[in-house]
UniProtKB/TrEMBL annotation:
<keyword id="KW-0648">Protein biosynthesis</keyword>
<dbReference type="InterPro" id="IPR002312">
    <property type="entry name" value="Asp/Asn-tRNA-synth_IIb"/>
</dbReference>
<dbReference type="InterPro" id="IPR006195">
    <property type="entry name" value="aa-tRNA-synth_II"/>
</dbReference>
<dbReference type="InterPro" id="IPR012340">
    <property type="entry name" value="NA-bd_OB-fold"/>
</dbReference>
<dbReference type="InterPro" id="IPR004364">
    <property type="entry name" value="Aa-tRNA-synt_II"/>
</dbReference>
<keyword id="KW-0030">Aminoacyl-tRNA synthetase</keyword>
<keyword id="KW-0963">Cytoplasm</keyword>
<comment type="subunit">
    <text>Homodimer.</text>
</comment>
<dbReference type="GO" id="GO:0016740">
    <property type="term" value="F:transferase activity"/>
</dbReference>
<keyword id="KW-0436">Ligase</keyword>
<keyword id="KW-0067">ATP-binding</keyword>
<comment type="similarity">
    <text>Belongs to the class-II aminoacyl-tRNA synthetase family.</text>
</comment>
<dbReference type="GO" id="GO:0005524">
    <property type="term" value="F:ATP binding"/>
</dbReference>
<dbReference type="Pfam" id="PF01336">
    <property type="entry name" value="tRNA_anti-codon"/>
</dbReference>
<dbReference type="GO" id="GO:0003676">
    <property type="term" value="F:nucleic acid binding"/>
</dbReference>
<dbReference type="GO" id="GO:0140096">
    <property type="term" value="F:catalytic activity, acting on a protein"/>
</dbReference>
<feature type="domain" description="Aminoacyl-transfer RNA synthetases class-II family profile">
    <location>
        <begin position="130"/>
        <end position="430"/>
    </location>
</feature>
Length: 430
């Protein structure tokens, strides 16, 4: 019976055949232990000399790492195995013998592993990270569908930018200028005026010459927008969504979290409501912790965000930033015009901002004024202004960075491991 490693639990005591790769092996006298993987999971195949023909035993001992095989054996429950089962091997059929596989069980440098990313993905650690990423994507679609959102796809090529064009990739669109999108937000605002509650989920690009562990050149964003939605309601959606992601990973990726040695007790605390502090309170908190360099009106860097996050055991909202350091489309606080109705959600454990959101300006005259103040070309935003000309309503939204969220939930130090093929400063291979 042909099956997969993920399905062997349904075949205990039965003989099965699995298409697999040899991740690693060790031999001890008259027994060989084969670490096998098939994409769905990992399992140990035990080859005993007394139970197989001599040629099968010799093949098991000589198989090179990452060779592909059809392996046949009887499934046994095994409490000692991390996966709960092992395979008593009776036959091995070689599909392809891999020679001199470059990623061996020894330690390799990061640059070497990045050069071989197409192969590094096969490792147990990278397998666990990709499974957690997939679970977060699945939970995202599930959460928004359950809550009445419609998925709308934003364009990747745009003629304007939500936050200016200084960090955008420029290209020619026939005889016009165009940019790779840094956000689908403006288009989601248009879609929200048609469909009420929407979200986009796709790749975004920022030509930011940063080498920090939090930055990628190409990354994926989840960007909901909601008509008739206040700033407060927006925060509630965010904390419910993030909690839903964490619970989905806890419920469905326990083995992967164990592989990554993630402290799940920290994730189990992630339930609504999340703590909130204003930008003013954050500045005061930083001064109390010795950050004398930060002044009112400055944006927060990674050390500041980490210090703030360390004061809480859940993600924390920092609200009401100064208008001068935020994008043009954010609604000013009606009681204090120099700050805007916005919030950044800072993840615990030093992972930084995972969400930025706000109530959007819905007044035509104010939005036009802000576009002009930012020195943006008015003509490029005429369609965006149309949303305020024809049936404007209060509305709010946010953007969640997928890779930072995966890094936090999985407990990964660098975001480069959270995307299959990372694009970094000076790296576009493979």
């Amino acid at each position: 019976m042909k099956t997969t490693i993920a399905e062997v639990k349904h075949h205990v005591g039965q003989e099965v055949t699995i298409g697999a790769w040899l991740a690693n092996k060790r031999s001890s006298g008259k027994i060989s232990f084969l670490q096998l993987r098939d994409g769905t999971g990992f399992i140990q195949g035990v080859v005993e000399k007394k139970n197989v023909p001599e040629e099968v035993f010799q093949l098991a001992k000589s198989l090179p790492q990452e060779s592909s095989v059809y392996i046949t054996g009887t499934v046994h429950a095994d409490e000692r195995s991390p996966y709960g089962y092992e395979l008593a091997v009776t036959d091995i059929r070689v599909i392809h013998l891999a020679k001199d596989y470059p990623i061996t069980p020894k330690n390799h440098g990061t640059e070497f592993l990045m050069d071989h990313r197409h192969l590094w993905l096969r490792s147990r650690r990278q397998h666990a990270i990709m499974k957690i990423r997939d679970e977060i994507i699945h939970a995202t679609v599930e959460f928004f569908r359950k809550n009445g959102f419609v998925k709308v796809d934003a364009p990747i090529l745009t003629g304007s930018a939500p936050e200016g064009t200084t960090e955008l990739f420029h290209t020619k669109y026939f005889d016009e200028d165009a940019y790779l999108s840094q956000s689908g937000q403006l288009y989601m605002e248009a879609a929200a005026m048609a469909l009420g509650k929407v979200y986009s989920f796709g790749p975004t690009f920022r030509a930011e010459k940063s080498k920090t562990r939090r930055h990628l050149i190409e990354f994926w964003m989840v960007e909901p927008e909601m008509a008739f939605c206040s700033f407060e309601e927006n925060l509630q959606v965010q904390e419910n969504y993030v909690s839903y992601l964490v619970q989905s990973v806890l419920n469905n990726c326990r083995q992967e979290l164990k592989t990554l040695e993630r402290d799940v007790s920290k994730l189990e605390k992630v339930t609504p409501p999340f703590p909130r502090i204003t930008y003013d309170e954050a500045i005061k908190l930083l001064h109390e912790q010795g950050f004398d360099d930060i002044q009112w009106g400055d944006d927060f860097g990674a050390p500041h965000e980490t210090a703030i996050a360390n004061s809480f055991d859940k993600p924390v909202f920092i609200t009401h930033y100064p208008k001068a350091i935020k994008p043009f489309y954010m609604e000013p606080d009606p009681e204090r015009k120099e700050v805007v109705l916005c919030a950044d959600l800072i993840a615990p454990e030093g992972y930084g901002e995972i969400i930025g959101g706000s109530e959007r300006i819905h007044d035509y005259d104010l939005l036009k004024q802000r576009i002009e103040e930012f020195g943006l070309p008015l003509q490029a935003y005429e369609w965006y202004l149309d949303l305020r000309r024809y049936g404007s309503v209060p509305h709010s939204g946010f953007g969640l960075g997928l890779e930072r969220t995966v890094a936090w939930i999985a407990g990964i130090e660098h975001v480069r491991e959270t995307i299959p093929f990372p694009r970094l400063l000076n790296r576009i291979y493979p």
